[in-house]
């Protein structure tokens, strides 16, 4: 019998993303430095890559019986497109659905959820960005490295803003159940990630 889902694991993944985002901001806004421009860029690129992978894998961490079975397979796979195929086979609804919370006209509800249609990082864009970082990390032409690093650095602000738009308020679907999870990345009361579970209506 499969273990009960642990949705707190998804929350922990989102908290890790927030901490990595803070590390990115420390470098982007020049509050801290590695002391060398190119290692600054490489550091930020690595944080984005880790964030992208957390976004892809986060829903599986709540269902350990699925994640553990994939660990060995995912460990051998470095192409993000193939990782997405593997994850999607276990949970087609793995990618976050961004929403806006707006005041409700219904007196019985505090607010309404409106789907976000533009301005967020799509799955295709995430895969493309992950690939650009991988190309840099495995570059073997030192004469192209400076140009590649500068080109990559120019993409960081857009990735940052579109990632925040994707995750700030989002809904996520999980495998093997009828649960939808609402996720807010920053509670007004605590500043932490906060969640709420909703069951699909029959």
Would you write up a description of this structure?
- This protein has 202 residues and is an alpha+beta fold.
- The chain has helices spanning 8-28, 37-61, 64-75, 80-90, 123-137, 142-167, and strands at 97-103, 111-115, 169-173, 179-184, 194-199.
- The chain has a five-stranded antiparallel beta sheet.
- It is globular, with a radius of gyration of 18 Å.
- The model has no long low-confidence stretch (mean pLDDT 87).
Key features of this structure:
202 residues; alpha+beta; five-stranded antiparallel beta sheet; 6 helices; 5 strands; 14% strand
User: What is the residue-averaged pLDDT?
Assistant: 87
Fraction of residues in H or I helices: 40-55%
The topology string of helices and strands comes to HHHHEEHHEEE
Biggest pleated sheet: 5 strands, antiparallel
The residue ranges in which pLDDT falls below 50 over 5 or more consecutive positions are none
DSSP strand count? 5
Helix count? 6
Distance N terminus to C terminus?
24 Å
Portion in strands: 5-15%
Strands of the widest sheet, in order across it, are 2-1-3-4-5
Helix and strand content put the structural class at: alpha+beta
Radius of gyration: 18 Å
Shape: globular
């Amino acid at each position: 019998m499969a273990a009960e889902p642990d949705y707190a694991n998804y929350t922990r993944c989102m908290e890790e993303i927030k901490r990595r985002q803070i590390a990115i901001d420390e470098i982007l806004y020049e509050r801290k430095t590695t002391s060398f421009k190119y290692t600054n860029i490489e550091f930020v690129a690595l944080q984005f890559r880790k964030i992208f992978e957390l976004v892809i894998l986060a829903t599986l961490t709540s269902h350990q019986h699925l994640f553990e079975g994939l660990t060995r397979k995912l460990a051998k796979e470095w192409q993000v497109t193939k990782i997405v195929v593997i994850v999607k086979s276990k949970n087609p609804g793995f990618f976050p659905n961004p929403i806006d919370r707006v005041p409700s006209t219904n007196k019985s509800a505090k607010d309404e959820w409106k789907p976000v249609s533009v301005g967020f990082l799509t799955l295709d864009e995430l895969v493309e960005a992950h690939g650009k970082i991988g190309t840099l990390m495995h570059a073997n032409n030192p004469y192209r490295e400076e140009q590649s690093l500068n080109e990559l650095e120019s993409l960081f602000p857009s990735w940052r803003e579109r990632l925040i738009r994707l995750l700030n308020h989002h809904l996520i679907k999980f495998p093997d159940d009828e649960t939808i999870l609402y996720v807010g990345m920053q509670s007004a009361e605590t500043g932490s990630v906060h969640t709420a579970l909703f069951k699909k209506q029959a």
